[in-house]
């Protein structure tokens, strides 16, 4: 009777060929793309923000992004345009504007990269690649009619590109704007539509444009929400301090755009420890947000803490644990068990 070793068994040759093949596979270098994908899936919590222009992410979600990135969640930012039509607030850079050199988009790619560094976010992408969709400009302007602008984009196509990112990054949570895009800018409205439809397509087995990637079902979707009471409070403080030019034309007691009724808020992120990162990201968007502009005027009058709280409305999935005092969730992943 012989006990034998695997090497001299009946399938010794086949076994050693298999071992060799396995060693080759193990030692093969992963492609950069595959490596990045594995790194993404290694992180338990994954969140995707869909925005229209560079700077929207920082203004709306700066502390939320910084907080989750610091907590080792995978934070993905998807920006739909380069913001080519933005106003240039830095005099020396005015030549970049769309009606002069038309070079603002490329400049804002750099501003966004610096802002992401400030927030600790490493996965920042442009929908369909940088420059695929152009900034449409404010509602009603002739730039809305340019065939290459985001407002004119085919919605299914744009949503399909969002779905590809969703299937790759597999976020449990997606954040975007409400149906009015927060304040009616055509690119914000379109970003909202593309994100909402993209989430549907990502989980639809019939959607095969995204190659071989598996369908992915997003558990929760939130819309950014700026509660009315907070904006009134901020404006009252500004006006009381004698500032009548910041947010010019807005009366703290009158109707307020950019806001939602407080009842629509369902979640708040308290990013007190990340206000400095948000302010530094705001400064990185130098052509768009100036230190003597309305956003900084708000914090000059109310203190930096005005930036610590970011509010949301849950529109897909169910709320997890809530703060008994406010009835709001305080973690966008709550109830998901991750
Ligand atoms: Zn915007």
TrEMBL record:
EC number of this enzyme: 3.5.1.103
Leading EC class: hydrolase
Membership in a protein family: Belongs to the MshB deacetylase family.
Encoding gene per record: mshB
Needed co-factor(s): Zn(2+)
Pfam families assigned to the protein according to its UniProt record, in alphabetical order: PIG-L
Domain of life: Bacteria
Hydrolase among keywords: yes
Catalytic reaction(s) noted: 1D-myo-inositol 2-acetamido-2-deoxy-alpha-D-glucopyranoside + H2O = 1D-myo-inositol 2-amino-2-deoxy-alpha-D-glucopyranoside + acetate
GO MF assignments: N-acetylglucosaminylinositol deacetylase activity; zinc ion binding
Record note on cofactor: Binds 1 zinc ion per subunit.
Source organism phylogeny: Bacteria, Bacillati, Actinomycetota, Actinomycetes, Motilibacterales
Protein name, as recorded: 1D-myo-inositol 2-acetamido-2-deoxy-alpha-D-glucopyranoside deacetylase
One GO term of the biological process aspect: mycothiol biosynthetic process
Keyword Membrane belongs to the record: no
Residues that, per the record, bind Zn(2+): 53, 56, 188
PANTHER family membership: 1D-MYO-INOSITOL 2-ACETAMIDO-2-DEOXY-ALPHA-D-GLUCOPYRANOSIDE DEACETYLASE, N-ACETYLGLUCOSAMINYL-PHOSPHATIDYLINOSITOL DE-N-ACETYLASE-RELATED
InterPro entries in the record: GlcNAc_PI_deacetylase-related, LmbE-like_dom_sf, Mycothiol_biosynthesis_MshB
Keywords: Hydrolase, Metal-binding, Zinc
Function: Catalyzes the deacetylation of 1D-myo-inositol 2-acetamido-2-deoxy-alpha-D-glucopyranoside (GlcNAc-Ins) in the mycothiol biosynthesis pathway.
């Amino acid at each position: 009777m012989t006990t034998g070793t695997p090497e001299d068994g009946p399938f010794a040759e086949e076994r050693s060929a298999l071992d060799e093949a396995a060693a080759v596979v193990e030692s093969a270098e992963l492609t950069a793309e595959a490596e990045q994908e594995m790194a993404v899936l290694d992180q338990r919590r994954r969140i995707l923000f869909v925005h229209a222009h560079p700077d929207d992410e920082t203004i709306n979600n700066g502390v939320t992004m910084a907080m989750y990135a610091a907590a080792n969640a995978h934070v993905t930012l998807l920006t739909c345009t380069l913001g080519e039509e933005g106003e240039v607030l830095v005099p020396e850079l005015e030549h970049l504007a769309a009606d002069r050199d038309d070079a603002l988009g490329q400049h804002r790619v750099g501003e966004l990269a610096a802002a992401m560094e400030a927030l600790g976010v490493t996965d920042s992408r442009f929908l369909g690649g940088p420059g695929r969709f152009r900034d449409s400009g404010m509602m009603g302007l002739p730039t809305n009619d340019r065939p290459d602008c985001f407002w004119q984009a085919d919605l299914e196509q744009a949503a399909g590109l969002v779905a590809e990112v969703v299937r790759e990054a597999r976020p449990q949570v997606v954040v975007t704007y409400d149906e009015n895009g927060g304040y009616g800018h055509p690119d914000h409205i379109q970003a909202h539509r593309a994100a909402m439809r993209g989430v549907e397509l990502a989980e639809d087995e019939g959607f095969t444009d995204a190659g071989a990637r598996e369908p992915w079902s997003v558990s929760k979707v939130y819309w950014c929400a700026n509660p009315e009471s907070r904006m009134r409070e901020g404006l009252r403080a500004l006006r009381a301090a004698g500032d009548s030019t910041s947010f010019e034309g807005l009366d703290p007691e009158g109707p307020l755009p950019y806001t939602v009724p407080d009842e629509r808020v369902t979640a708040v992120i308290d990013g007190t420890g990340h206000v400095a990162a948000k302010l530094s990201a705001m400064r990185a968007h130098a052509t768009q947000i100036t230190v003597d502009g309305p956003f900084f005027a708000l914090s000059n009058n109310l203190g930096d803490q005005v930036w610590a709280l970011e509010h949301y409305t849950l529109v897909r999935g169910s709320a997890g644990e809530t703060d008994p005092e406010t009835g709001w969730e305080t973690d966008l992943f709550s109830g998901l068990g991750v």
